[in-house]
């Protein structure tokens, strides 16, 4: 309830429970909407009596003419009713303000408390190790032994996954806690995140000028190229529609990430954060160790954010990074549901580069 209203205050038009000041009068939602529609559409009404109908909660819909006259009599002003263009502008302004507040909240989290110089030096050393491991293991062309051979789609996927799992395992091994985890926990963490790690690498190849992914000088993948695989491989119409939407969203997010100019260090730290996500751990006894590692990786992200920061605008760009990466991971999780033999051609194009 707005602070200017009293408890139990009623609509001055019909006596229903009031919700606020609308067009200069304290009214309910029903009378607000009725007055707005009448003013926007320039509607006119006719009273069957002498324009003296009693307007209350029960009768307000009986005579629209008398209801509108009472709206004006209590002070409601048609001049304050926005047209459709003005309503759209107002919604955009509200949306922009809401996003700005959200970004400022994220910014305060990203900036975090100031770190001492020795701690930052340690984190930078670890960032370099993680980046080196990322470049050696993740950011490498994927070569499979079945490429170009006539094999089943299941074999095609299995052969593609084998080096991805091996490389992801070796990449994660640069972080000390990884080798202390049971193998089943390692596989559990990789199972939930290898697609995210590989697709993050894939979207880093986005060419803004050409609106395509360009893994190397001799290969470009447009949205049409990826969608083309669906006409052959996907049989279910619902799957087809969802995959089309996911691919379209992937291009939108790739453009957003490209605008942030992620370097190898950020890609490496983000990939490690994907893998060491404590929410993917089933064994409760292992969660503290994984959470501690994740927190340290988050500190590394803070360091990279501070290092790249050049005033408020750049800091806000890093806040947008958090939002964009969250949206990216959400798309990856949806894509994971479609990671099967029916869609082998699609995932080979995205991962086999």
From TrEMBL:
Keyword terms of this UniProt record: DNA-binding, Metal-binding, Nucleus, Receptor, Transcription, Transcription regulation, Zinc, Zinc-finger
Domain Nuclear receptor: 8-83
Gene Ontology MF annotations: nuclear receptor activity; RNA polymerase II cis-regulatory region sequence-specific DNA binding; zinc ion binding
Domain NR LBD: 122-353
Family designation: Belongs to the nuclear hormone receptor family. NR1 subfamily.
PANTHER family attached to this UniProt entry: ECDYSONE-INDUCED PROTEIN 75B, ISOFORM B, NUCLEAR HORMONE RECEPTOR
Predominant subcellular localization, coarse grouping: nucleus
Protein name: Zinc finger, C4 type
Xref: Gene3D superfamilies: Erythroid Transcription Factor GATA-1, subunit A, Retinoid X Receptor
Record localization: Nucleus
GO biological process, one term: positive regulation of transcription by RNA polymerase II
Organism: Ancylostoma caninum
GO cellular component, one term: nucleus
A matching Pfam family: Hormone_recep
Organism domain of life: Eukaryota
């Amino acid at each position: 309830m707005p602070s200017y209203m009293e408890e139990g205050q009623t609509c001055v038009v019909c006596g229903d429970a009031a919700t606020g000041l609308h067009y200069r009068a304290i009214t309910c939602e029903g009378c607000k909407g009725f007055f707005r529609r009448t003013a926007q559409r320039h509607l006119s009404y006719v009273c069957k009596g002498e324009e003296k109908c009693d307007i209350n909660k029960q009768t307000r819909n009986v005579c629209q003419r008398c209801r509108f006259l009472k709206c004006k009599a209590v002070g409601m002003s048609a001049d304050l009713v926005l047209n459709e263009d003005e309503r759209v502008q107002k919604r955009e302004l509200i949306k922009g303000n809401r996003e700005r507040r959200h970004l400022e909240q994220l910014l305060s989290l990203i900036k975090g408390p100031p770190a001492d110089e020795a701690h930052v030096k340690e984190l930078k050393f670890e960032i370099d190790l993680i980046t080196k491991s990322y470049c050696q293991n993740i950011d490498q062309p994927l070569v499979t032994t079945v490429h170009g051979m006539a094999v089943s789609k299941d074999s095609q996927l299995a052969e593609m996954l084998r080096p991805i799992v091996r490389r992801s395992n070796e990449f994660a091994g640069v972080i000390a806690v990884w080798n202390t985890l049971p193998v089943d926990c390692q596989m559990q963490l990789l199972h939930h995140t290898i697609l995210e790690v590989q697709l993050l690498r894939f979207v880093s190849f986005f060419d803004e000028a050409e609106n395509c992914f360009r893994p190397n000088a001799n290969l470009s993948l447009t949205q049409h190229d990826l969608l083309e695989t669906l006409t052959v491989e996907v049989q279910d119409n619902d799957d087809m529609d969802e995959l089309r939407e996911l691919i379209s969203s992937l291009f939108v997010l790739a453009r957003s990430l490209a605008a942030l100019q992620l370097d190898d260090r950020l890609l490496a730290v983000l990939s490690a954060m994907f893998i060491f996500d404590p929410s993917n751990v089933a064994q409760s006894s292992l969660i503290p160790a994984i959470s501690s590692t994740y927190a340290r990786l988050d500190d590394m992200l803070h360091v990279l954010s501070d290092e790249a920061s050049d005033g408020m605008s750049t800091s806000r760009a890093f806040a947008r990074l958090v939002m964009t990466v969250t949206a990216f991971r959400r798309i990856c999780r949806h894509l994971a549901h479609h990671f099967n033999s029916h869609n082998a051609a699609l995932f080979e194009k995205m991962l086999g580069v």
